Amino acid sequence: MIKTRAGEVIVTNEKQGRMLEKLYGTSGGRLALRVLTRPFVSKIAGAFMDSPLSVPLIKPFIRRSGIDMSQYEKKRYWSYNDFFTRKVKPELRPVDMDEDALISPCDSKLTVYPIDSRSIFTIKGARYSLKDLLKNDFLARRFEGGWCMIFRLEVDDYHRYCYIDSGIKTGNTFIKGQLHTVNPIALKRYNIYKRNSREYTLIHTHNFGDVVQVEVGAMMVGRIFNLHGSGGICKGVEKGMFEFGGSTIVLLFEKGRAVPDKDILRNSRENCETVVKYGEKIGTAG
Question: Which residue from 172, 185, 272, 277 puts its CA 20 to 30 A from 110's CA?
Fold first, then answer.
């Protein structure tokens, strides 16, 4: 279930859900996935989505998804990925610059979980630990007692993301994986955080301690583009973008350094995702 910040229950991407139910819920679909998730297929699909041949896909997708294009900067799109990574008008995604305000890095559906030494997080049936996610036991243990925030982007969401605070970041660590969709239907049968390619960085923030941000790729193309290497960063500045495919961002906070908003915690306890926007306040410093 998905809720807005006002508590309204919403339904999104029903057609996509039915397609994924066939892929992940039938023997024929799972056989097709063995082909669809191979690297050479991803490369072919990626090349097509980068080419002018993919432009005819744009208008039908806008109609099906009900996307309000007046919210985005006006331009001519040269490929589907050019459209998919379109920029929203800056005034429509104001960033809460209060030092104590914890902001969402992206438009997404958010769930928050506490972390302990034996945490196995379940999201719509998928189970994983932090050491599985990061492939780094030492780093994973640093976040015991803190929070794990999972931001799930659907294909019609804005696919650019920002830094949640100013500070200094390490380089980006890439973990190769087999790509699968992050739609909840898929999570019934696949542990996506062990299978998906992902990239993470450790951020020494000014107001929230050390934070790990992980970008997780999605089925087929699932490409992650982070714009910066190690160095200084500023709150609200664009960090990167996802190309075609639903995607996920995970934020890890140390004990006592962040306090999620009460409505988000309540929804998470009820197994509900909360709709949040890029730059929106979702909590405070601890």
Answer: 172
